[in-house]
């Protein structure tokens, strides 16, 4: 697997197009580590794309690179057909507002010294939008929309709120900017299960109301199924499979890694609620020194000598499914 | 399943060399800045140095001549370069106050006294702190621990000149156990020297004991919670053996650094004690010079102390990364 | 359904680095968060001292400075709470109570101003270094190390040799002592905090660098600097007292704790121990209080950050 390739990209009309994204980090010993190696995808208006993979596969790096926070090492990010890489600092700041991001850790996402009312109005105050009065009104409206009572939380600070409430404030802060694209980086994994469901409902409603495109990052296929239109499976900085959500339930052949992720999802009514064979058996190889050829081969049940030499490309399997694997495709 | 994950590669050598070169450059920059700051002290001096030297009421030509002689009319930078090159050759100029002796010879006779005081004070501080830390860590949170912690916190708040005065009042004047205001050089008589040095050394050591004790105690407490100590305990080793042989060594890394740094800063911080006990070290030299406005001596002393500090500091850093396997690993 | 992910070898710089690992047994003591009686008493002491020092000119105190006015007063009067000189008088008949209070006035004003300047300058410089990294960071690091290369007291003595010993000059010299430590802590805090998501979010919202520094980083870095400031106040009070004790700080007849203690030198202390004990006691209590409160504040804020 470890597919490069752009067979899954659609022609035109995409809100966000990402081509051959590469993100590199420098380690302390001055070594370079590629967290993302040539990932491409697109998101249509009103569509939700989920990126799924284990921690360390580079999915969060993708999210930050899309925002240009920091800018990717290589590759192109186009928002509404505008190439972000070509913009100067100021124009970049301006166009970045059309994308907003919500992070996993609800508490770390909020400045502990600010009150909710200031947090939610932060964007408006940065850009000097509207009057104090209209900002207040917008903020109240959006707090209401994410299910918080403005009168209750208005003057509170983050440590006076629960994790779920903090996450709602973060979402409100993003929505008040009326973005075209909302990036949700693992926003559910630090919340209780009951709150996860509420949050998913909230996101689904918001998306429907606002014609919002979403990039939803998660490590758990079960969560993703409920909200996505399309799913992209990543492993060690590369794309394994891209498929429409309907294709997930079809007893079709999947990429071996997708298969592994699917098996780790507990099924309703099953006696084992604990993830069965967690996609381990073995730890993730070090991204400092990824396996040659297909990066998944060291954990793949189907691996052949060919996989060590040749990197598979993402190939079209059906209209709604693209797989990067020598054996499956 | 194929598994051929290679061992992570070592950082290439040239990069390590480059980093060392970068460190060296920074060090040099620090020394240059300190020397420049020291040089600039004379620019902060209020009034005209020529007037200060000659006194008032001389004809203007006399002042002008002094300025010429001192090179005060040259541009600042060239004066600095000249001064620095003389300093590097070991020429710190001559003292302004009679007897106008060579600054370098005054420094050379004062430096060993401060060094001896600092080294002895460190040894004494360690001799007192290590057992204190061990009894504290032995039952962390217990009565002994609390008493030690309260006492060290209290000592931390006693300025050394107060401690020195109290020691003099009690040990010298009340009970006449020790002589006062007298220094015997180590080269003249070793026992006499040690006898005279004891009280000043104790006063300096009091400054460091709280820091050492608290640091070592918390490191010991951490180490004692580790598995290998538990293993020793399970083997039935007596507590004192565990404390001495298992826990002490791994707990001593950070205190070694702190001791090194303390040595560096103590050479300058013996000021108070040297003045109190009238010892002929760097501190009393610089205090007297400062009181009299004898700038060349102040500048020379500041530079020597700063260079000593930087050199020891760097040596400690280097030694630390060689000694402590954890740091070595982290750097790779 | 929610599964904690396995921690992998690399993720982009993670959050939460600010939370210093809770110290070992020190925090396991039952005292917990630590606002106990002792801390309360220290706070009360500092508050009383500050108020008394502030309103000193309005208080019915004896003469503290002008020996021409005390010709009729007894010299070396021992402390007697019932007398006109509750803490005694010195060689010139000056009232010791008045002198320690006026001494506190100078000490507190000079040291607190120096620390405030140090916090402002060191905080801003440290945040800048930590946020911008790169060359700026290196240059600031070299400057900081240069200031640290000269031991505190030696630097103060060197400055005292050329500056006139006015309170203003003392403030400048002492703030030079406080700046490098503040820079280091502010820089370290900034390095940790700038990885926090809220900083990224602010940038996603379009905030400029200056806004990120002032609105997002500064208030949170200040939280770490304040306890350090308390500890620095106590260190500077000692440094200032040491300088006056050595006779190169603020000079008599203006009273400071340091030059009052110096009056007990040369055998006077054995005859009239109160000459030293009175100012030394004030000095000790004040330094102890600042140390203790600084230490407790640090712990309280540490644990609060952990809870967050």
TrEMBL record, chain A:
Q: What is the official name of this protein in its record?
A: Peptide ABC transporter ATP-binding protein
Q: Does the keyword Cell membrane apply?
A: no
Q: Spell out the molecular function terms from Gene Ontology.
A: ATP binding; ATP hydrolysis activity
- Give the family this protein belongs to, as stated in its UniProt record: Belongs to the ABC transporter superfamily.
Q: What PROSITE patterns does its record include?
A: ABC_TRANSPORTER_1, ABC_TRANSPORTER_2
Is ATP-binding included in the keywords of this UniProt record?
yes
The protein's UniProt keywords, in alphabetical order, are: ATP-binding, Nucleotide-binding, Transport
Q: Which Pfam families match?
A: ABC_tran, oligo_HPY
Q: Where is the ABC transporter domain?
A: 16-261
Q: InterPro entries this protein is in?
A: AAA+_ATPase (IPR003593), ABC_transp_ATP-bind (IPR050319), ABC_transporter-like_ATP-bd (IPR003439), ABC_transporter-like_CS (IPR017871), Oligopep_ABC_C (IPR013563), P-loop_NTPase (IPR027417)
Which PANTHER family does the annotation name?
A: D,D-DIPEPTIDE TRANSPORT ATP-BINDING PROTEIN DDPF-RELATED, TRANSPORT ATP-BINDING PROTEIN
Example of a GO biological process term:
transmembrane transport
Q: Read off the SUPFAM superfamilies from this record.
A: P-loop containing nucleoside triphosphate hydrolases
From TrEMBL, chain B:
Membrane topology annotation: Multi-pass membrane protein
What the entry lists under CDD domains is as follows: TM_PBP2 (cd06261)
Task: Tell me a GO biological process for this protein.
Answer: transmembrane transport
Q: Where are the transmembrane segments?
A: 24-45, 113-135, 147-175, 195-216, 253-277, 297-323
Which SUPFAM superfamilies does the UniProt entry name for this protein?
A: MetI-like
Question: What keywords are assigned to this protein?
Answer: Cell membrane, Membrane, Transmembrane, Transmembrane helix, Transport
The identity of this protein, by name, is ABC transporter permease
Q: Which organism is it from?
A: Acrocarpospora macrocephala
UniProtKB/TrEMBL annotation, chain C:
> Which residue windows are transmembrane per the record?
37-59, 106-132, 139-163, 169-186, 217-239, 272-294
In terms of InterPro entries, this protein maps to: BP-dependent_transpt_permease, MetI-like, MetI-like_sf
Q: What membrane topology is annotated for this entry?
A: Multi-pass membrane protein
Cellular localization per UniProt: Cell membrane
| Stored CDD domains | TM_PBP2
Q: Where is the composition biased (Low complexity)?
A: 11-28
**Could you tell me which residues belong to the region Disordered?**
1-28
Query: Which GO cellular component does the record give, naming just one?
Result: plasma membrane
User: Mind listing the UniProt keywords for this protein, alphabetically?
Assistant: Cell membrane, Membrane, Transmembrane, Transmembrane helix, Transport
Which part of the chain is the ABC transmembrane type-1 domain? 104-294
Give one GO biological process term.
transmembrane transport
- Superkingdom, according to UniProt? Bacteria
Q: Which family does it belong to?
A: Belongs to the binding-protein-dependent transport system permease family.
Q: What name has this protein been given in UniProt?
A: Peptide ABC transporter permease
Organism of this sequence: Acrocarpospora macrocephala
Q: Which gene encodes it?
A: dppC_1
């Amino acid at each position: 697997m470890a597919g490069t390739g752009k067979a899954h990209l659609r022609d035109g009309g995409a809100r966000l197009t990402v081509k051959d994204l590469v993100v590199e980090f420098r380690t302390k010993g001055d070594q370079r580590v590629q967290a993302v190696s040539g990932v491409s995808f697109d998101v249509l208006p009103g569509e939700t794309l989920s990126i799924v993979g284990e921690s360390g596969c580079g999915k969060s790096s993708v999210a930050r690179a899309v925002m240009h926070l920091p800018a990717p090492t290589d590759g192109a990010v186009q928002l509404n057909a505008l190439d972000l890489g070509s913009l100067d600092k100021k124009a970049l700041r301006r166009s970045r507002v059309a994308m907003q991001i919500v992070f996993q850790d609800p508490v770390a996402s909020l400045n502990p010294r600010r009150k909710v009312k200031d947090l939610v109005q932060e964007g408006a105050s940065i850009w000097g939008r509207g009057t104090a009065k209209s900002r207040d009104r917008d903020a109240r409206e959006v707090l209401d929309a994410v299910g918080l009572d403005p009168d209750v939380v208005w003057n509170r600070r983050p440590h006076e709120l629960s994790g779920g409430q903090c996450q709602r404030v973060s979402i409100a802060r993003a929505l008040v900017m009326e973005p075209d694209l909302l990036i949700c980086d693992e926003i559910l994994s630090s919340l209780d299960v009951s709150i996860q469901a509420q949050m998913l409902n909230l996101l689904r409603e918001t998306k429907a109301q606002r014609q919002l495109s979403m990039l939803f990052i998660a490590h758990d296929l079960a969560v993703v199924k409920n909200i996505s239109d399309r799913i992209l499976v990543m492993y060690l900085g590369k794309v394994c499979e891209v498929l429409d959500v309907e294709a997930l339930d079809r007893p079709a052949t999947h990429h071996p890694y997708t298969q592994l992720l699917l098996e780790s999802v507990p099924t309703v009514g099953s006696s084992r609620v604990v993830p069965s064979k967690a996609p381990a058996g073995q730890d993730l190889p070090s991204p400092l020194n990824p396996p040659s050829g297909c990066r998944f081969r060291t954990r793949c049940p189907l691996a052949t000598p060919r996989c060590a030499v040749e990197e598979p490309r993402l190939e079209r399997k059906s209209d709604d499914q693209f797989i990067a694997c020598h054996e499956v495709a | 399943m194929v598994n051929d994950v290679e061992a992570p590669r070592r950082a290439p050598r040239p990069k390590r060399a480059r980093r060392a070169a970068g460190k060296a450059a920074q060090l040099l920059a620090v020394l240059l800045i300190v020397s420049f700051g020291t040089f600039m002290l004379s620019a902060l001096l209020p009034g005209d140095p020529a007037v200060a030297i000659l006194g008032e009421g001389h004809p203007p030509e006399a002042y002008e001549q002094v300025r010429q002689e001192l090179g005060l009319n040259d541009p600042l930078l060239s004066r600095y370069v000249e001064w620095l090159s003389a300093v590097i050759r070991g020429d710190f100029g001559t003292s302004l106050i009679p007897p106008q002796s060579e600054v370098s010879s005054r420094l050379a006779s004062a430096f060993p006294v401060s060094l001896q005081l600092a080294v002895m004070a460190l040894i004494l501080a360690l001799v007192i702190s290590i057992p204190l830390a061990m009894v504290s860590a032995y039952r962390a949170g217990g009565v002994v621990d609390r008493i030690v912690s309260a006492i060290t916190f209290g000592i931390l708040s006693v300025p050394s000149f107060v401690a020195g005065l109290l020691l003099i009042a009690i040990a010298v004047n009340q009970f006449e156990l020790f002589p006062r205001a007298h220094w015997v050089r180590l080269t003249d008589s070793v026992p006499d020297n040690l006898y005279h040095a004891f009280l000043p050394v104790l006063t300096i050591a009091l400054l460091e004991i709280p820091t050492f004790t608290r640091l070592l105690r918390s490191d010991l407490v951490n180490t004692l919670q580790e598995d290998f100590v538990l293993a020793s305990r399970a083997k039935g080793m007596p507590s004192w053996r565990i404390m001495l042989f298992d826990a002490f060594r791994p707990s001593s890394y950070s205190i070694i650094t702190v001791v090194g740094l303390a040595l560096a800063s103590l050479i300058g911080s013996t000021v108070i004690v040297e003045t109190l006990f009238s010892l002929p070290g760097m501190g009393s030299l610089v205090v007297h010079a400062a009181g009299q406005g004898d700038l060349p001596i102040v500048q020379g002393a500041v530079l020597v102390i700063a260079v000593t500090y930087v050199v020891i500091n760097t040596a400690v850093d280097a030694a630390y990364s060689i000694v402590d396997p954890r740091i070595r690993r982290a750097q790779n | 359904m929610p599964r904690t992910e396995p921690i992998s070898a690399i993720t982009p710089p993670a959050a939460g680095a600010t939370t210093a690992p809770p110290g070992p047994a020190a925090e396991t003591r039952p005292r917990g968060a630590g606002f106990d009686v002792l801390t309360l008493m220290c706070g009360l002491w500092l508050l009383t001292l500050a108020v008394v020092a502030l309103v000193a000119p309005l208080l019915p105190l004896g003469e503290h400075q002008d020996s021409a006015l005390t010709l009729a007063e007894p010299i070396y009067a021992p402390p007697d709470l019932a007398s006109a000189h509750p803490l005694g008088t010195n060689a010139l008949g000056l009232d010791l109570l008045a002198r320690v209070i006026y001494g506190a006035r100078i000490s507190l004003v000079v040291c607190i101003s120096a620390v405030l300047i140090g916090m402002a300058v060191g905080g801003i410089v440290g945040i800048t270094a930590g946020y911008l990294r790169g060359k700026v960071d290196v240059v600031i690091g070299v400057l900081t190390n240069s200031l640290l290369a000269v031991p505190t007291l030696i630097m103060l003595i060197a400055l005292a040799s050329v500056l006139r010993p006015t309170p203003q000059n003392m403030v400048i010299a002492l703030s030079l002592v406080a700046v490098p430590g503040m820079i280091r802590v502010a820089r370290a805090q900034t390095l940790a905090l700038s990885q926090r998501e809220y900083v990224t979010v602010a940038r996603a919202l379009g905030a400029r660098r200056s806004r990120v520094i002032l609105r997002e980083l500064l208030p949170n870095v200040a939280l770490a600097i304040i306890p350090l400031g308390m500890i620095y106040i106590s260190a500077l009070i000692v440094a200032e007292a040491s300088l006056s004790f050595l006779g190169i700080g603020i000079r008599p007849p203006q009273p400071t704790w340091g030059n009052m203690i110096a009056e007990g030198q040369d055998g006077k202390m054995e005859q009239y121990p109160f000459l030293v004990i009175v100012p030394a006691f004030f000095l000790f209590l004040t330094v102890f209080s600042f140390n203790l409160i600084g230490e407790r504040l640090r712990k309280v804020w540490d644990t609060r950050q952990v809870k967050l």
